[in-house]
Write a structure and sequence with these properties.
- The longest helix is centred in the middle third of the chain and has 32 residues.
- 29% of the residues are buried.
- This protein has four helices and 15 strands.
- A six-stranded mixed β-sheet has the order 4-7-8-9-13-10.
- The radius of gyration is 20 Å and the shape is globular.
- Helix 1 packs parallel to helix 2.
């Protein structure tokens, strides 16, 4: 769960959310939503619009796969453009990347939780990683398009990345000069807001007693100039690895809200 706060809230809000392609209704689970007090200028769902589905042939499937098949992201990228007034636009990109749970491999699962081989599990983990990082690539291509039109664009990428700040999905999205080796791309670098939170409190999920920072609000340098503070409300966060902790028995989110505050002058 992520929240952006900009100035004093108004009484009226506009809500935008992802919709199914079949009937245009909200997804039953894991729907992406943006709630805004600012006028909504544009809404777009992006899924393989900028990057084609990669082709992959499993090496551990039983029976063996003869041809490569398409690998798709689990959910769309949700892009919303907001009017901040004074000829300023905020580009909000809402993500929920593939979890670290391995993707299924044909013939490699005994049941929902048990794998037939370590190699099968490893390949499932690889495909899950490909889905997670692949969607980050498409997101980064969207961001580069925005920067091409406006080098000083105000951009906020929010969501459940299922990755800590030092892992590949976050690094690929940020595009630090230390990684690209090109100082001329410095204006395209994105910055995680949680960096202003002390290390001891910087976690949005508890797994086996260890705090992990999987939820992020990552912003452009232009938006960073309006940044004030970030809070992570993990005070009562349950450990998501507890026994029998299903969504039905424990409907409350096991991810802490991440609240980033910005003050935009009129």
């Amino acid at each position: 769960m992520q929240t952006l706060i900009a100035g004093t809230p108004y009484a009226l809000y506009q809500m935008s959310h992802t919709k199914t392609l079949s009937n245009g209704e909200a997804y039953d689970k894991r729907n992406l939503v943006v709630l805004s007090r600012f006028p909504v200028l544009a809404v777009r769902q992006i899924k393989h619009d900028l990057t084609p589905k990669p082709l992959y042939r499993s090496v551990t499937a039983q029976p063996p796969e003869v041809q490569a098949h398409e690998v798709s992201w689990e959910r769309p990228i949700f892009y919303v453009q907001l009017d901040l007034g004074a000829n300023r636009r905020l580009h909000v990109i809402n993500l929920h990347l593939k979890s670290k749970i391995p993707s299924d491999i044909p013939g490699q699962k005994i049941d929902q939780y048990k794998w037939r081989s370590v190699a099968g599990w490893a390949e499932g983990y690889f495909i899950a990683s490909m889905r997670r990082v692949g969607q980050v690539l498409e997101t980064r291509m969207l961001i580069d398009q925005i920067f091409d039109n406006d080098p000083g664009a105000l951009i906020a990428v929010c969501g459940d990345f299922n990755a800590n700040g030092d892992e590949v999905p976050v690094s690929a999205l940020r595009g630090q000069v230390e990684d690209t080796g090109n100082p001329e791309l410095s204006q395209c670098v994105l910055v995680p807001c949680e960096r202003s939170v002390p290390d001891s409190a910087r976690y949005s999920l508890l797994h086996l007693g260890k705090g992990e920072m999987l939820n992020h609000v990552i912003v452009s340098r232009g938006l960073l100039s309006y940044y004030r503070a970030t809070e992570i409300h993990n005070e009562a966060l349950p450990d998501e690895s507890g026994a029998f902790r299903t969504d039905v028995l424990f409907p409350e989110s096991d991810h802490a809200p991440v609240v980033a505050e910005f003050v935009v002058d009129n």
